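Sequence and structure are kept together here, with a separate record for every protein. An example record follows, reproduced without changes.
>
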Amino acid sequence: MNPVLKSIAVLLVLLAAVLGVSAYRIASRPAPVPAAAPPPAATRIEPAPRDEHTVVLAARGMAAGTVLEPDDLRLEQWPVAPAQGFGRTEAVVGGVLRFDVAAGQALTDPMLVQGLATYLRHGERAINVALEDSAMLQHVQPGDMVDIFFTLGKDEETGSTQSRLLLPRARVLAYGAKSVDGPEPDTKAPSANRGAQAAPRSATLAVPLEQVNDLLLATRNGKLQLALRAPSDDARPDATLFPDTRPVLEGRAGLTTVQRQRLTLPENRAYAGDSLAQLAASETAAQRRGNPVPTTPRQSSRSVEILRGGQSERVHY
């Protein structure tokens, strides 16, 4: 063997031995203990943000029937919103209280007047009336404008059968199960013949207070029929062209001029009342107004012949 190669082989063996001893010593050393980590810096816990709800409150104590104005209301932030409460004053202004409320009390939807009463204008009353059957009734809808005609039969008070316009431009608030609030919930099973059902025979109408008596008299003693009219048609009869009627209750004697003017207010006219003879404009009513109506006696078609001393006379009866 070449001496040079032999020397290199010996050196490699010695180097391998040294490396093996070093690796053993390193593996035999105990693992170093890690240094303790520094404690974390203290953290500040922020409180969770609280929800706030805007609530409409009564700014003062108010009685039932009060019409709410902006000055009657105020806003507060509450952690919890009341059930059926309001978050905007605009949603409450113009509403009418059903109950007395105290200052600071949260206003809720049940506290406000609801239903047909909210659709009445100042000076109007809601009156339910029976109607004469008519094919036109199938087309009446809540919110329609109608003319109310009435027919009276002949009797001692009316004098003759008559029909005329009683009340122009009356608003229909409810008709059958439907109203301006919307239809009632339909709990019945669907029916194939529902479209063929008869039209309702009554309606709830918005009527000026001073004409409620006329409507009640006509309903009690005659028959009413509705006539649909265009919403844009605002023509009305001119009552100043006709004789004034006299109320059932006359004003007291000795009233001042101002007091007599107050007799013409709708509420006072309604309290004074009306009679069927006035409503029917019968001959008796015209005479009461100081406007006697000339009449021509009507001969009946029935007669009897009376003989007196050879003379014959035919008497109608």
Remarks:
- The first helix runs from residue 3 to 28.
